[in-house]
Design goal:
It catalyses: citrate = D-threo-isocitrate. With 747 residues, the protein is of the alpha/beta class. It has 24 helices and 31 strands. Helix 1 crosses helix 2 and helix 3 crosses helix 5. The structure holds iron/sulfur cluster.
């Protein structure tokens, strides 16, 4: 336990005073999200009734967390900020760079060797600037934050899109790009558009096979991957108290899958129990002094439609287990309809690998319920049809699961226990397969299932479910198996049914600590080394400022068709090793995006050679000729992760504009921070006017102003021209970033 409650001794009394001040000025009941947001205004004198979804507001978050793949770029930027120390408590977590292959021990040893230079850099920069450092194997960022740092009523940012996991302990925790994290670490204002608030009222109580994961899987189907954009999902109602704190964290974690800014639950007994179990009794005592302000005002619950922008009701007692996928986390299907869907769509029916754990579903409750199913294999004389992989979320949970016999239960059915790290969840899975061209299905208890995300194979159909359902399907080896009603045939030829999963919310004997994974900073004189010829790390040079001219005659680099997530823009997996080297990682730019003109990936027309080339190779050639280029895309461009490489790579390769039908929130901000133009069609049908050999101009930049549209001119190859209006969401400050070349340049 590394938590230091000193800062909270002052936080909670101040929080109470701030909320009272806000209520006195706004003169109306407040939602929980509003209380926490307003209590974190950068300047308390700025209290006014901000328009949700419209007004940009400056905040002062309490802390920052960074994972190793994004921390590299965040810290490279922080080093250029001229500060001696971080302004708020911050941590780095080594979780993304460990490849899952043979099992925890060997994989960590391999990771230490292959990533030595990066780990040393992260450790030394952390030590130098006062940042806590969690070593490889210590755990996944969100699980470690939940176990050690999250606190009710707090606000944090994290350079990872699943940072909202901490909402399970009542914290406003928001995923951001590295440049945003730098704002907070330097003590500057951190800007966010005041989010809308979606209220989700929970009633009833989960039972049987249903789990907290199913709440968010169902909600993803209701809201879709865009439905939470620029909104906080605030859970309320009597059902919230029936969910464990870790179950709440799972639900908040996957709010990222509907694009929500964050998700959160009100402070309650279940949170207090978890905080005490993880050694934070003092946090509970302090939080209880302001308990009434760690939930929405009573009037909000009485008339939710008056105070929330949208209200959704879910009755936990009626909730069925869900399976979502393939290829998108919002394709939600209740288990009772899933077999029909598999057969109708011709999904590969054989379930080839089951994967449980990750930051999403690694709680004691998750693992103990899954283990209760694993134990039934021997008890009922069954066999297990598919391999099982387990990624514990932290060393604390792994050590506890080992002490309490769960790891043994998994190993007895042949599971491979991987490192306490992301592994297969981020493409760091060295999967051995007989034929990568064969369509195959996997089920995971992770959160995301975009094409190629787990194993890099486009033929893998990934489905997301609870750990319990993942385990049942692994035992059956059949996607059409419904454990609520179907039976399995055991070695005696008998038909047997799996009993409902059971498990404990928290370990009866407390958590085991496992191996120490935390390194406290030393500060001061720690030397930071970046070799000039390093292939993993590269110091950053500032991007050039805008030259004051309109952008004229830009070649179309790619017109992307369909889904274009950050995985399509800047693939993870093997490319993770270049996350600290902008030039090298730029070679993967948009390689997963589908070219609308030929339906292929990473094959675009190069006007300089009049042949087809890779997206990055073509952009590089234009850049070498001093020619800026433009990318055109469809809906929710940049959906998925917070990785700012997806914005920095195009910037580095002289792409100046992304013109899309719509953007995902974090990515749109990342583009702005890096000095790019993120524009959207006023009329989405204009997307169809853009031809493969067009040159595009963006006019009106001299008068670039908030709320004022710009004009795009298409210069067709046949000499004709067309023009249309495009819109943007830049405010004055963001326009200053564009003019300066980036937000960092504008400091
Ligand atoms: Fe790691 Fe996956 Fe969680 Fe991201 S979602 S932090 S990759 S385990």
């Amino acid at each position: 336990m590394v938590y230091d409650a000193t800062m909270l001794e002052a936080f909670y009394p101040a929080y109470k005073g701030k909320v009272e001040h806000v209520r006195a000025i706004l003169k109306r009941p407040l939602t929980l999200a509003e209380k926490i947001l307003y209590a974190h205004l950068y300047d308390v004198a700025d209290v006014k009734d901000y328009q949700r979804g419209e007004d940009y507001v400056n905040f002062r978050p309490d802390r920052v967390a960074m994972q190793d793949a994004t921390a590299q770029m965040a810290l490279l930027q922080f080093m250029n900020a001229g500060k001696d120390q971080v302004a708020v408590p911050s941590t780095v977590h080594c979780d993304h760079l460990i490849q899952a292959y043979k099992g925890a021990k060997e994989d960590i040893a391999t990771a230490r060797l292959t990533n030595e230079e990066v780990y040393d850099f992260l450790r030394d920069v952390s030590s130098r600037y006062g940042i806590g450092f969690w070593k490889p194997g210590a755990g996944i960022i969100h699980q470690v934050v939940l176990e050690n740092y999250a606190f009710p009523g707090g606000m944090m940012v994290g350079t990872d899109s699943h940072t909202p996991n901490a909402g399970g302990l009542g914290m406003v925790a928001i995923g951001v790009g590295g440049a945003d994290a730098v704002d907070v670490m330097t003590g500057m204002e951190w800007e966010l558009k005041m989010p809308k608030i979606i209220g989700v009222r929970l009633t009833g109580k989960l039972n049987g096979w249903a789990s907290p994961k199913d709440v968010i899987l169902k909600l993803a189907g209701i809201l879709t991957v865009k439905g939470g954009t620029n909104a906080i999902i605030e859970y309320f109602g009597p059902g919230t108290e029936s969910l464990s704190a870790t179950g709440k964290a799972t639900i908040c974690n996957m709010g990222a899958e509907v694009g929500a800014t964050t998700s959160l639950f009100p402070f309650d007994e279940r949170m207090a129990t978890y905080l005490k179990a993880t050694g934070r009794e003092r946090v509970v005592e302090l939080a209880e002094t302001v308990g009434a302000d760690l939930r929405a005002d009573d009037e909000v619950a009485e008339e939710p439609t008056k105070y929330y922008d949208r209200v959704i009701e879910i009755d936990l007692s009626e909730l069925e287990p869900y399976i979502n996928g393939p290829f998108t986390p919002d394709a939600a299907t209740p288990i009772s309809k899933f077999a029909e869907k598999v057969l109708l769509n011709g999904y590969p029916r054989k379930m080839e690998v089951g994967l449980i754990g990750s930051c999403t579903n690694s709680s004691y409750q998750d693992l103990s319920r899954a283990a209760s199913l694993a134990k039934q294999v021997a008890e009922k004389n069954l066999s297990v049809a598919a391999p099982l992989i387990v990624n514990p979320g932290s060393e604390q949970i792994r050590a506890t699961a080992e002490r309490d016999g769960m790891i043994e239960a998994f190993e007895q059915i042949g599971a491979t226990i991987m490192a306490n790290a992301c592994g297969p969840c981020i493409g760091q899975w060295k999967r051995e397969t007989d034929d990568p061209t064969r369509k195959n299905s996997i089920v995971t208890s992770f959160n995301r299932n975009f094409a190629k995300r787990a194993d890099g194979n486009p033929n893998t159909y990934a489905f997301v479910a609870s750990p319990e359902l993942t385990m049942a399907l692994t035992i059956a080896g059949d996607l059409c198996f419904n454990p609520l009603k179907d039976r399995l045939v055991n070695h005696e030829g008998e038909k047997v049914k799996l009993s409902e999963p059971v498990g404990d919310e928290l370990p009866l004997n407390g958590f085991a600590q496992g191996n120490e994974g935390y390194v406290a900073p030393h500060g001061g004189e720690t030397e930071i080394r970046v070799k000039p010829d390093s292939q993993r790390l590269q110091l950053l040079a500032p991007f050039p400022a805008w030259d004051g001219q309109d952008l004229l005659n830009m070649p179309l680099l790619i017109k992307a068709q369909g889904k274009c997530t950050t995985d399509h823009i800047s693939m993870a997996g093997p490319w993770l090793r270049f996350r600290g080297h902008l030039e090298n990682i730029s070679d993967n730019m948009l390689m997963g995006a589908v070219n609308a003109f030929n339906g292929e990936t990473n094959k675009v027309w190069n006007r300089s050679t009049n042949t087809y080339g890779t997206v990055s190779g073509t952009a590089k050639m234009y850049k070498s000729e001093g020619v800026p280029s433009i990318v055109v895309a469809e809906e929710n461009y940049g959906e998925g992760s917070s990785r700012e490489h997806a914005a920095m790579e195009p910037r580095f390769l002289n792409v100046r504009v992304i013109l899309a039908k719509s953007f995902a929130r974090i990515h749109e901000t990342n583009l702005k921070k890096q000095g790019m133009l993120a524009l959207t069609f006023v009329d989405k049908a204009d997307y169809d006017k853009i031809r493969e050999h067009d040159l595009l101009s963006v006019l009106g930049l001299v008068d670039f102003a908030p709320g004022r549209n710009l004009t795009v001119v298409l210069h067709h190859e046949d000499g004709t021209k067309e023009s249309f209006e495009v819109q943007h969401t830049y405010n004055e400050q963001q326009i200053a970033w564009f003019r300066a070349g980036s937000a960092l340049n504008a400091r």
